[in-house]
Structure formats: structure tokens, C-alpha cells
Amino acid sequence: MTDDQHRIPGHPLLRRPAEGELLDVAGVAHFFRLTGEHTGGHFALEEFSLAPGTIGARPHVHEGHDEYFYVLEGELTLHTGDGEVSAGPGHVLAATRGTPHGFRNAGTVLTRALCLYTPAGYENYFRDVHAAVSAGAVATDELLAEFRSRYRTSSHPVSPEAP
Predict the structure, then answer these.
(1) How far separated are the first and last CA of the chain, in Å rounded?
(2) Phi-psi region of 148 (alpha: psi -120 to 50; beta: other; left: phi over 0)
(3) Rounded (5°) CA angle 163-94-51
(4) Contact (CB, 8 A) for 42 and 119
(5) 63: how many CB neighbours lie within 10 A of its CB?
(6) Measuring CA to CA, how many Å separate 105 from each of 14, 38, 110?
(7) CB 20 within 8 A of CB 31
(8) pTM for this structure?
(9) Angle at the Cα of 127 (from 125 to 133), degrees rounded to 5?
(10) How many other CB atoms are found less than 10 A from the CB of residue 52?
(11) How many CB atoms neighbour CB 82 within 10 A?
(12) Which of 31, 86, 95, 138 has the highest CB neighbour number within 10 Å of its CB?
């Protein structure tokens, strides 16, 4: 791949509030504001929302990209590899490559957060899962693990008492 394939167009890109790609995956509304197609593959940015009691992602590890979470509203319960922490508006979590992480909404109100992926590409995982479920597949842990493996991501073991 040459550097030219990763160049961002020579002008700013403005995305209006309703512009983006909305994918509902396993009960999480992923609203991709920028994808690799917009950023020359450098990063992807999504806003996601989780209803109370929703598991966003069981603990897992990425080997091919980093993820950065920024909580906008509500409270996000984050799995850190050593346990869980609660994060409210303004909190940031950096889940760099090789770092076990996961998230859920253990609260009683809707949670909204941003997630930045660098480099871009993991948005395709969500596209793949969405397409499979839309075609009739059930989003089982096994199905999600199979799709994750395509993007250098693996499940991380959790204790039996974890949700």
C-alpha cells in the first residue's frame, strides 16, 4: 500500500448531526460519523448508545487497532482486565492494542459515548455483524467471536460472576 492510498482529501469534511452510518448491532446503536473511507484509513469515529442493562461488548482484546472511549451521557461500566469501573460524562478510556476491555450500561438511563478507532477498519466488523443478523443470523457469542477473529480481535476470559 502506498502513502497515496492513505491521503485525506485536501479539504475539510463537514458531517452534519444526522449524517453518518447507523448500524444496530446486538442492541447497540452504532452511529459512524467518520469511517476509513473519510479519513484515508487513519481512524474511524462513532457515537454509540446503550439502553439500561445492555452489554455493549463482552471483554475482548484487539491486536490490530486501538480504541478510545469518551462518555457523553449516562454511565458506562468498563471492564479493564482487572475488574470493572464506572465512567460518567467526561471520562475517557484508552484501550490500546493488547489491552483487555469491554463495556456495558449497568445504569438506569441511556448511555451515549464516542469511540475512536485507530487505524480505521474495525467499523467493518460492525457492518459484517449487522449484515449477518439482517440476513437472519443470531448474534451469539460464537458468531461474534468468529467475526472478531477476522479483525485481529479475540475474546478475553471473564470470571463466572461477571455479567
Answers:
(1) 42
(2) alpha
(3) 40
(4) yes
(5) 10
(6) 30, 30, 8
(7) yes
(8) 0.85
(9) 100
(10) 14
(11) 7
(12) 95
> How does pLDDT run along the chain (163 residues), one tens digit per residue?
444 445 555 778 889 999 999 998 878 999 999 999 999 999 999 999 999 999 998 899 999 999 999 999 999 999 988 889 999 999 999 999 999 999 999 999 999 999 999 999 999 999 999 999 999 999 888 888 899 999 999 888 775 554 4
At 107, list the grid cell. 445504569
For 58, the grid coordinates are 463482552
Give the Cα separation of 32 and 138 in Å (integer): 23
In whole angstroms, what is the distance from residue 140 CA to residue 135 CA?
14
In the chain, the amino acid numbered 105 is: N
Name which of 58, 4, 54, 34 is nearest 121 in CA terms: 34
Q: Measure the CA–CA gap between 35 and 46, rounded to whole angstroms.
A: 8
